Amino acid sequence: MSEYQGYAGESLQWLKKNNVKVGNSIKITADGLTNSGIIMPRQESGDDKHLVLKLGSGYNVPIKINEIQDHQLISSPEIKPKQDQERKEDPELPKILLLGTGGTIASKVDYRTGAVTPALTASDLYETVPELRDIANFDTEVLFSEYSENLQPDHWTKIAEKLHSLADSDYKGILIAHGTDTMHYTSAFLSFALAGFPIPVALVGSQRSSDRASSDAAINLTAASNFLVKSNTNGVFLVMHHDEKQTVACHLGTKVRKNHTSKREAFETMGGDPAFIIVEGEIKKNMQGDFFEDENYNPRMKIDTKVSLVKYHPGYDPQLIENLIQTGCKAIIFEGTGLGHVGRTMYDMIKKAKENDLFLGMTSQCGDGRINMNVYESGRDLLELGITPLKNMTPETSLVKAMWALGNSKNVVEMKDLMEEEIASEF
Amino acid sequence: MSEYQGYAGESLQWLKKNNVKVGNSIKITADGLTNSGIIMPRQESGDDKHLVLKLGSGYNVPIKINEIQDHQLISSPEIKPKQDQERKEDPELPKILLLGTGGTIASKVDYRTGAVTPALTASDLYETVPELRDIANFDTEVLFSEYSENLQPDHWTKIAEKLHSLADSDYKGILIAHGTDTMHYTSAFLSFALAGFPIPVALVGSQRSSDRASSDAAINLTAASNFLVKSNTNGVFLVMHHDEKQTVACHLGTKVRKNHTSKREAFETMGGDPAFIIVEGEIKKNMQGDFFEDENYNPRMKIDTKVSLVKYHPGYDPQLIENLIQTGCKAIIFEGTGLGHVGRTMYDMIKKAKENDLFLGMTSQCGDGRINMNVYESGRDLLELGITPLKNMTPETSLVKAMWALGNSKNVVEMKDLMEEEIASEF
Fold first, then answer.
1. Taking CA atoms, what residue in A is nearest to B374?
2. pLDDT, tens digit, for every residue of A68-81?
3. Spatial separation of the C-alpha atoms in residues A365 and A395, rounded to whole Å
4. Can you give the pTM of this predicted structure?
5. Is the CA virtual torsion A281, A286, A292, A298 positive or negative?
6. B151 touching A, CB under 8 A?
7. Which domains does chain B possess?
8. Interface pTM, i.e. ipTM
C-alpha cells in the first residue's frame, strides 16, 4: 500500500488505472492548467477527490481528479536523476546553519514509504525546498528530534549553548527548525539568554505538514532564509506564515504568541506589529522604532525552573499558593484579570509568599494590552503587598524570563531588578 | 476642592476664572461647535488641557480649553430642575429589571463631591443615561457591590437564584451591571445554570468610568436595553462596545473572552462572530445558525469549585498535579499547547489522576481554534490516558462548566456526559 500512501476512493482508482505512484514525477493538465511536480503521499484523513502535487517551487497544490485532462509520467523514484544533490555550492553565497530540533518542519515524508523522517542533510533540504539553494549554502545539524510539546528548559539550554559556540563563526544567520506548540517559549528564552548575540537567529516551524496541499513549510523556510541573509539585524526572531497573500511575518522572540490551534497564520506579535514582513523574498521593516537597545553580546544561559504560572479565576483556591511555597517554588507569575488583579481572597497567601521571599509578578490573562495596577483599588492593594507589575509582557514571556532571571541572580532583589530591566525588547 | 474635582493647571484656571464648577449645566462653543451638557469631574491622572462635558445623549466629550470661544452657564447643581426624576413611567413601554453587582458601570460619580456611588435607583439611572427612559420602564435592585475580580462562585449562585425567581415575571429582559474583569466567567455560569431561561439576560459593563470622556457606560447600557426589548431571543449574553463606529456587540455568554486590558472593544466572541451587533438602537443578527438548541427551561444551579485550571508549559512540575489530587481536587481542565497537548513528562501524573477518578479535560492556550487530539502522537497518547477533548470551548468556559457539571452530577461518568453535551451553545 505504501506506493499509494494515504490515497483512497476516486483518487486511488485514478492512480492505479494510470500506473502512477507516490513519488513519481509527473506533468498534469487539469482545468486548463498544466503543472509539473511530484505526487505526494496524503494523510489518511484527507478526502479522496484530489491528488497532491509538490511543485518545483516547493509549494504543494491539490489537483481535482475529475478535472484532469491529460498527464505525462516523467520519472519514477527509482530512475529519478540525482544531479540536484551533486551540484556544487556557490562560493559567492552566504552560509546559513540549520539546526533541527524536531516538529513537522524538520521532517520530510519519504515519497515511497510515507514515513516521516528528519530531512536535514543539506541535499535533503535542497531536494525538499529547491529555491533555498539560490539564497545560501546550508550546513545542517540535528540537535534533537522532538515535537515541541515535549521540549523542556534543558533543551532550551542545549540550543543556547550550541548558538553560543557559534558567536564567532562565519554564518550569516542561524535557522532553528522547531515544532510550533512551544516555539514562542523557546524564542523567549534564547532572546534573554543570548541578548546581543551577533548573528540573527530565526526559529521556523510549520502548521501544516508537507504532505498537505496547504503546507507552509517551504514558504516559511524560504522567507526565514531570506530574512537571515538580507535583514542586517541581529536578535532572535520567530518566522511564520502571516496572511493569505503568502506573506511571512518575522516576530520579535519575546513578543510573540501562538494564538490559533491550527491555522497557518497562528502566530501574532502581541500589542504591536511584527518586526518585519517578508513579501516574495523582500524584507520590509514593519515595526516602528529600534529593536534592541543593547548591542553588546551578554550571554547568561543559566535557568532555574522553580517558577509557577498561576492563572487567577473566581473560585481559585488560595491554598494552592501555600502548596507552591511548600514545594520550593521561588517565584510566581500571576495571570491576573483585567489590568492586573486577583481577588482579595488571595491577599493572605500573597503576604505569606512575600514572607517566604518569593518573587511575585503580575501579568494579564487578557492576552493583549498593558498592566496598570494604579487605576483600581485591587491593583493598588496588590502593589502594596509587593507584587511587581510586568507591564505589557505576555504571561508566557514573563514565565520564561522569571526562570532565566532566577537562574542568573543571587537573590530576590537582583531577580526583581532583572525582571524590570529591558533585556531583549520584551516591553 | 470638590467643586473642581480632578481639574488642574489650565483647565482649573479656566473654571475658576469663569466661576464654573463640576456639576454645572453649561452651553459651550469651542472650535466652531456648540455643545450643552454637564461639567464632569475628572480623574487625577487626566491631562489639564480639557474639560469633560456629559451631553444629553449620555455620551461624554472632551472640550479643549484653548479652543473655547464662548460659554453660557445654564444652571448649577443646587438649582438644577428635577422634573426628570418626577416624570411618570410610560405604561406602553416594556419593563426591564437592572440588577447591580458592582463595577464601574453600576456607579455614578457625584458631580459635586466626585465620590463614586452606586447609581441604581431608577431615577438615578434616568439621570445618568436619559435615553433609557424611551426604551423601557426600569426597576433596579442592588445584589451586591463588588469589583468583579472579587466575585466568587457564591456570587454567581446568588445571581442565578435571583434570576430563577423571576422566570415567571413580566420583565421583558434583565440587565446585570457587572465589572468587566470576570464578566465572562459569570456569563458562562449563568448560561449553564439557567439553560433555556425564558427571559433574555444581558450582562453589561464599562471599560472606562463615566468621568472619562471616552466612557462606554451610557452606550453599552442603552444598547443592552434595546437588545432586551427588541431581539425576541432568550439566553444569556454579554453586551459591550464593539468598534470605533460606536457599534455594540452582543456575545453568547459561553463563547466570549476579555482579550484586552483597557480598550473599550475588549471583549470578543472566540472562533466566530458576535451573536448580534447593535447599531444606533437597531439589532442586527450577526451569527449564522440558531443559538440555543434546547428551548425548555432547565435550571441546575449547584456548583462545586473543586476544579483546577492547569496551564501547561515547558518546565511545568508534574508534582503539582499530585498536590492537586491530595488537596481534594476532583477535576482538572488543562490549557494545553497547540491542538491540545502536554509534554510526556506529565503522563505518569495523568495516569495517577485517572486512578483517583478525577475528570480530566483538554483545552488550548492558543485562545482561538479547535482542539484536535487525533493529529499528533501526543494527542493520541493523551486520549488513551483518558483525557476528554473539550472541542472549541475556551479554557475559562470549560473551567466554569466543569464546576457546574461537578456540582450537578453524581459521579465522574455523569460529569463527563454533561461536559460533552451541548448545554448553552458552548461548542
1. A45
2. 999 998 876 544 44
3. 7
4. 0.82
5. negative
6. yes
7. 2-78 (2.30.30.520), 89-285 (3.40.50.1170), 307-420 (3.40.50.40)
8. 0.82
